[in-house]
Amino acid sequence: MSTTTQADTGPVWDWAAGHGPVTGALSATTGCLAVATTGAAAGMPPGWVLAVGAAGAIGHTVTSIRDRLAARTVGMRAASWLVGAGWTTWAMATGPLSWAALGSLATIGVGMGAAARATLLHEEARELEAIAAAERQVARELSAERRQIAAEWVDRIQRVCGVTVRVLAVEMWPTGTGFTIDAELPPGGITYDRIARESARLSADARLPHGCTATASQGIDQGRVLVDVTTVNVLAAEVTYPSDYGPLSLHSGIPWGLRTNADEIRAYLREQCALVVGPTGSGKTNMVHTILAGFARATDVLTWVIDLNAGSAGLPWVRPALDSSGQTADGMRPGVDWLAASHEEAALMLDAAVRIAKHRKMAYQDLMSKANTDLLPISDRIPQIMIVIDEGAEILASSDRESRKLAEKILEVIRIARAMGIRTVLTALGATGAVLGNLMIRREAKVRVALTGGETEGMDLGKQFPGSRGLRVDQAPYKGAGFMGTPESPAALFKSWRILPNQIRDIVAATSDRHPTLDATSAKAAGPDYARRWDHVRTAWMRDHAAPSATEQDRQQGHTDGLNLSALREERSADPLSEDELARKFREQIDAQFATASEPGHPTREPEQPPAPGLNLSALRNEDNAARQAALALLLAAGPEGTGASAIARALADEHGTTRQTVVGWLKAWTEDGTAVRVGTGTKARYVHRRHAPGASPEE
Ligand SMILES: Nc1ncnc2c1ncn2[C@@H]1O[C@H](COP(=O)(O)OP(=O)(O)OP(=O)(O)O)[C@@H](O)[C@H]1O
């Protein structure tokens, strides 16, 4: 029995607790006294007590032996039962309330307490000794393994790098996926990079499995080196985004994935921008969602997303919070705070960001001087704005007028808003010179990710991670795997989590009441463009499940002074004449073969089929969009077998430079208007032209 003290109700008896030496003895003696007095008063035969005591001694002995207690403890407990029973028998016969009886009972109590304490100490000492012995055994085995590893690697480093190191420690990773060797470099001015640059040869010499590496980095001082050796390939496996959606803060970093030792790697974005490079199919879209998940969980971040490819990166984060009319439902906030899918909306967003940055600079002077800092103190009351721009690097590199305007605004935000808490995450299909050649990006975006997914083309890791050695694309030939480097953590292999659509929905719901609101000062500077971002007209495209295609938008806008509202416009080649020619040829070819649409002025051959605006070939006639027509031709040509976005994009890449994302947008639109039918699910999903769709009549 023990007591716990409660602040307002006083001590509470805890009947479930075990006995200590004092409470045990007290319990035993008071028990004996109670039995003796009531037994004597009721005329109970004293012999019964003796029988009960003997049974108790036997029972306790059995359980003590079962619990593997020491012989001394077993003996003490049995003796306590017998002595207690003996006293009770005697006291019942002679009268329990005499001085002699009570005195002897008190003496027995003290004796029992002392004996119990002594045996308890003995028991604890025995237990500690057993634990220590087990630990010594494990340590002996471990240190034998470590000694063997140390010896092997001293040899290997000597053989491969010609450097004789002295290993000071080998730390086995708790995840069981590798170890780190801490070694002293030989005297004579040898530096760690003599070993770092031989990473690939060391890995081969150690016969490490694919995807595992031996990478050397700086040790605690310049005469020491740390060699991280991965022995289990965590890059190959699909690791799902952790289901703990607890709150995060920008200041403590946002987890973006796993290192090869299964440690989380975090991006610290208070001052840094990020650049995520990944060719199509490398898992870039998935990584964007992982990034958005982290921002949604943060209590001091508002996420603004620009995705000119039908807003697809941001939509899953908005949809769960939209009601049936497409407006944000009461009480539910989307996982992103603003989503732009057109050049126009993106321009409004970036202009607002610039106004906020400039206004914050003035309005928060006092606050910053009180906090003695030149960085705006970001918190849930003054949140940081993270602008995630999918394929933003391509906007920076693009030469069309609208994209150039956006590019200027993006660079202005990056240039002026660091201290005022607005940073960007740009993604890119390739680490092109136009992106990494930009000083602003090189200087401000030091959180870098390269998703390789087995792609070697256009992957210049040396440019993206200057100063790092031994990084090879073929070390991470898996989807969602690649390299990540931040100012805090040197570039090395990493794996992004796989995030599933249902997780996105769950995170939107779980974080809905956690998002900060834009501070009033910033909101005022952002003005109505920000306040009315969820307005019906501005979000109509979200209700339609996809952004309006270029065709529709252009038609709605009446082709006003060449305003480019869509990413599709980027598909135009530099030479409009040859493109026109190509478009005409395609039209003729396809119309001749399939009679897709009637010529203006001719009776339609498909009266039952209302023309789908902007999505059949006749609607495209004035579109100057050869790439889109070529894609449709490919879809038709694929027949009942169908085809996919990647295959179409590959076929168009050379001639039109079309991205897979763009093709995905077209396929989506064609599926929605019935031009194409999607068959199969997951990786087996294919698109079939409606003429070849299962159940379609051949004449159709
Ligand atoms: N972290 C990951 N772990 C495991 N598999 C992944 C991961 N990320 C992506 N994948 C797989 O790769 C496929 C393609 O991913 P994703 O759509 O993100 O690629 P992408 O690079 O954005 O391609 P695209 O630009 O063509 O859309 C996914 O359907 C999934 O099966």
UniProtKB/TrEMBL annotation:
Enumerate the residues binding ATP.
Answer: 278-285
Record region (Disordered): 597-616
Which UniProt keywords are listed? Answer: ATP-binding, Nucleotide-binding
GO molecular function list? ATP binding; DNA binding
* Domain (FtsK) ranges: 262-460
What InterPro entries does its record include? FtsK_dom, P-loop_NTPase
The identity of this protein, by name, is FtsK domain-containing protein
Native organism: Streptomyces capitiformicae
Organismal lineage: Bacteria, Bacillati, Actinomycetota, Actinomycetes, Kitasatosporales
